[in-house]
Write a structure and sequence with these properties.
By secondary structure, the protein is α/β, with parallel strands linked by helices. 41% of the residues lie in helices and 15% in strands. Strands 7-6-5-4-3-2-1-8 form an eight-stranded parallel beta sheet. Helix 3 links the parallel strand 3 and strand 4. The chain is globular, with a radius of gyration of 17 Å. The chain starts with a strand and ends in a 5-residue tail after the last helix. The protein binds 1,3-dihydroxyacetonephosphate (13P).
Length: 254
Amino acid sequence: MRYLVANWKMKLTIAESMALARAVREFVERHDTPDLHIALCPSHAALSEVGKILATSGIALGAQDAAHVDRASLTGATSPLHLAELGVKEVIIGHSERRAIFGETDELVHHKAKAVLAHGLTAIICVGERKEERDRGEAETVVRRQARAAVDAGTPWEKLCIAYEPVWAIGTGTPVRREDAVAQADAIRDELGKALGNKDAGARIPVLYGGSVDGDNVRLFTQAPLNGTLVGTASQSKEGMYALLLALRTLPQE
Ligand code: 13P
């Protein structure tokens, strides 16, 4: 299975999100997208309306964050319970913007992933080094630490997915080189296997790449051992989304 996960961040209004969801639905109704799992992650405020548009389309509804518990005095937060009620199937956890701007720690990411997985939702956990960490030669150490911290031996890994998103590649127009993404995916899988106490599980967890992915380069990151992409900017317009989908349509089956 190959993945194309659209992270619309806080870039679209509810009306714009609905229009884009309709356009993506139209595309998949008109074209075959074999072996491709598509998920759209609008902002929480648009989940309900976008969910109605995607119903029965085969396109999954995703969310960009969830709280680490089901019920609590947590003003402004969204429970995994709400997401499940809204028909959300996958949740992005620990995006670098949430780590950097909202101060989310490895420990909080761990608890959020557990809370989401407990409801049978897919957790897409983001890991990735910052520019200065790569320059210091610490890129692998950082993703190993983040991957290890995200899970433990009791984590139900069947619905776990990792997105390797180097912070320096997000929104810059410069993606990582494929060989560097592959090396990081190897390190992530190795670390997950150790933390889960199950090497085989580690090897089977999908690893996506995110950071300046567009229609011109998406194929590079949608071939084994990488399992697809988590896309920001290029997924936030009809043109960008169609370019991604057209590029993936012609990718040979693995
Ligand atoms: P860009 O595709 O805009 O670089 O964003 C990547 C990202 O952060 C997806 O979660």
